[in-house]
Amino acid sequence: MEKNGKSLRNLLSVKWIILFTGIAGSHLLFAQQSLETLYRLTGDAVTGVFEPQREVIQNCSAVIYNKRDEIAYGVVISKDGYILTKASEIQIEEKSEEEAKDKAEPEGEKKSEDKAKPDGKEKSKPGKEFKLPIPEGLPPGTKIEDAGAIVLAVRVDKQEFDEVKIVHIDKKWDVALIKVDAQDLTPAEFAPDSKLEQGTWVVVNGATSRTKRRVLAGIISAQAREIPKDGVVGLGLVLEKVKDKLQVKDVSKGGGADLAGVKVNDIIVNLEQKKVAELKDIAEILVGKKPGEEVKLTVKRAGKDVELTVKLAILAGSEKPMDRNDQMSGDFSERRSDFPRVIQHDILANSNTMGGPVLNMKGQVVGMNIARANRCETYAIPVEELQVIAKEMLEHSFK
Amino acid sequence: MKGAFIYSSALWVIATLGFVPMAAHAFPLNEKKAPETQEDLMLIQQTLLASIPKAKAATVSIDLGNGFGSGVIVSKEGLVMTAAHVSGGVGKKVTIIMPDGTKHKANTLGLMAETDAALVQITDTGEYPFVELNRTGNINLGDWVFSLGHSGGFNKERGAVARLARLVRVANTTYQTDGTLIGGDSGGPLFDLDGKLIGIHSRVGPQLPVNMHVPVQVFIDNWEPMMKSEFMGEGPFAQKPIKGNGMLGVATKSVEAGLEITKVGKKTAAEKAELKVGDVIRKVDGKEVKTREELQTIIKDKSAGEELELEILRDGKERKITAELAER
Asked: A9 touching B, CB under 8 A?
């Protein structure tokens, strides 16, 4: 599957991109003096000074492959092979209940269970299971490796593991717990907290060879905070054009319009004191508005105008449209919003370098990279939350 | 060339004043090609941590109505340095957003359309946090620097985003750093590690480490004309206003009291200013208008982005309405 960002990179036709959100332009100026690559932030002369931190990365940053391709990094959290990574980058899906059931109960047993039902004894539900997506409709005899299915492998330090078990995922944080069959790994040491001032050094896994991990360093670049869900804000209504008016056909339960008291069959009169006759009129009025903002909505109900205040929310399943900043960002994570709290750093990264540890200068984990948001912002789950997530998932796996 | 330029101007200082101006406490690691020890790294961090708070307090977001840029306050009275493609013109009204979200009215002053430099003055009176310019001329290839900016627009919870970088290219009108910038950063400040302003963010190349800034020296050399609101140069970062390219977007007929609006065009300046059919325009910019031609003459003398002060009659009451002309 090709990433949006990668395909868009080709669309960048201008030489320079002016950094103002909204207006495009191009200009070329010639520079005279240039610093050798060696001495730049990503150059060996600089990254080489981070050797003590690199040695830690070498051991606790797992590299996750789909066949030969690096698709993510991970944080080694136990000697015996438990590793945390970014779930959506390795495309783990939760098995539907049916699939899980089918596997747990072959045909014959299913019938016996049906028979057992009259006793009132329900067989306990099988635990959640996780799978990697497998393409459907393969010709018989096709190996799934050849058919584009994901085949995971993990490298830690110089060891390679071909058997990778998916233990659990935390959808809220987009974190997966995976397990490889190991005995002697060096787990990451967690820092006591992630309270780092803006400007503090952090170090991550920057690149990988068979035997060696390279590091990149940067700074904590912004305040820790929640990243609200991206998407299109809306009222939470299904509208239908009836003659030249918009009528409410359905109200999303628990949505802004529902909470404000909009009812099915209401006719939309005004939004923000502006007449609306078309869906695009509503879209135009809502453009640039943020979730949580309130708008005034007037509806006609039983011949009377009713004034309501609707709190806007992100519409379920909507995606933020690509903007200019996304286009100039190249590669970014598919999931890069809806995190309860993140810390942010300025280290160059890609969507396939997420999931790895973020170290402080003591070589302790202060976070786990969770999203490449754009060309200058990368988010990491703070160590406080990461430890809770890890603990909960480990407990689950031992049940 | 840039190196030569800096060098020769330094010589000029020596020749006329007889001494080399002291570089105000230059960051010692700039003398090394690269940090050598973890202690060196900690010195970078320590210096940066000390500089960020003051630099951040003066780093503002600029709301232009149709987008966002950044800027940095350089005087107690609220003078702001930014990029020409952010200010976009001379004498325009913009809104400055302080780090705590407070908004201030501001007017754009002069700009340099060829190098992307501009000044903006906050018009609300007050005392503003500001940064100092590095006026030593002692800014060199390989220097450790940091960028601040309201990347992607203002976000109070996040605050201005910091990026550590080195100066990787130096030319007369451009610095390049390897600290990544993005839309919304434009016009934001580039600092030396001691927190003195050395440049203003301008543009980026397609590759991540290609990020361009206007050297502070460009501002210093053109300070007076910029303060006098001069529009210098011809593009590409700002276009001179073109007289007569503005449009209000109404159809009118002459009536006894003035010009009655018979039609308001969709998505026009008139609609935006909430002019309505039936409104009677009595005066524009203080001048009485009785005919369509009189209104057109006034508009022809202005350009898109400029404002019209309208005095109108609506439902028998006098009203004042300001309309910003749209581009024809």
From this structure: yes
User: Does A40 contact chain B (CB < 8 Å)?
Assistant: yes
Candidates A8, A21, A38, A226: best to mutate against B (most CBs of B within 10 A) is A21
| C-beta of residue A255 within 8 angstroms of C-beta of residue A261 | no
The fold of the B2-232 domain, in CATH, is Thrombin, subunit H (2.40.10)
Tell whether A137 and A174 lie within a shared domain: yes
Count Cβ atoms below 10 Å from residue A354 Cβ, excluding itself. Answer: 29
Q: Is residue A146 part of a domain?
A: yes
Q: Which of B152, B216, B24, B275 is nearest to A326 (CA)?
A: B152
> Is residue B223 very low, low, confident or very high in pLDDT (cuts 50, 70, 90)?
very high
Mutation site for A-interface testing, chosen from B42, B141, B158 by largest number of A Cβ within 10 Å: B158
A219 touching chain B per CB within 8 A: yes
Classify B68 as helix, strand or coil. strand
Q: A6 touching B, CB under 8 A?
A: no
Q: What's the average pLDDT block by block, 10 residues per block, for chain A (399 residues)?
A: 38 52 39 83 96 98 93 97 94 60 43 38 50 67 67 95 93 95 96 97 93 96 94 89 90 91 94 88 85 92 94 83 81 92 96 96 98 95 98 84
Q: Looking at the structure, do residues A253 and A286 belong to the same domain, yes or no?
A: yes
Chain B interface, mutation test: which of A201, A376, A378, A379, most B Cβ atoms within 10 Å? A376
Domain-terminating residue out of A284, A314, A344: A314
Q: What is the ipTM of this complex?
A: 0.80
pTM: 0.79
- Token pair belonging to B153: 């627009």
- Chain B: residue whose CA lies nearest to A196: B49
Which residue from B45, B151, B163 is facing A200, i.e. has the nearest CB? B45
Chain A residue numbers with beta carbons less than 8 Å from the beta carbon of B148 are: none
Is there a single domain that holds both residue A290 and residue A349? no
Domain ranges, residue A277: 233-314
**Beta-carbon separation of B209 and A221 below 8 A:** no
Exposure string (b/e) for A299-332, b if CB count within 10 Å is 16 or more? Answer: bbbeeeebebebbbbbbeeeeeeeebbbbbbbbb
